[in-house]
Specification:
alpha/beta, Heat Shock Protein 90, Rossmann fold, seven-stranded mixed β-sheet, 10 strands, globular
Length: 247
Amino acid sequence: MQPETIDLNPLIYGLVDMLQRVLGERVKIKTKVSYDTGLVYADPSELENAPLNLAVNARDAMPNGGEMTIETTNVDNHQTARSPSDGTDTRYVCIAVGDTGMGMDQQTLDNAFDPFFTTKEPGHGTGLGLSQVYGFAEQSGGHVKINSQLGVGTVVQIFLPRIEEDAGKSEIPNEKTAAEEQSGRESIIVVEDDDAIRGYMTNALRELGYHALEAPNAGSALEILDRQPNVQLLITDIGLPGAMNGR
């Protein structure tokens, strides 16, 4: 994890076009952001991947189309249904991703965060999407909550601790030289339509310290390049879905 102070609303708005490509034409995406949404201290690449993973699940839960909503709000302990044991009053920022899909039964809800658990057919999902979202939230000092009802839809809420502006900067140790800090932190885009291969590659790169971004097709990769002009390396499959290939 390479956390930094992040303003959520610009990040969410910047993801909308890419998320729409992931969702396809049958799913409409709506954003509802609070104008006073607080800052969070988190890894930006992991924070971008969380809504992307949830969008993939939402798309698969709505094979005939529907609506996905992304909402940001400020919440307190009593609104998260999880208070710390020490009684401290932690304030959070909530990113809620909802869909109008098929929903989950109780057994699925009980196992939703388990690594490799999936209700999809073999070859159509790794079962790592929700577990990665859960791990990211927990490592960032927050947590995740799922509300779902069969035939109605699902809402996944990611709660991240809210901070004062620039408060997180003092938590980063400054013991390395500038050259050492730069090494291994370059930005890399991985373009691969196979979810399992793409997930493995990006996770491996992040473990090595790189800022790894991922795209399932050429169109999504171009969207990222528009937003991230300082990408040093592109790793791409040659055969990609759609009109444009890797070359």
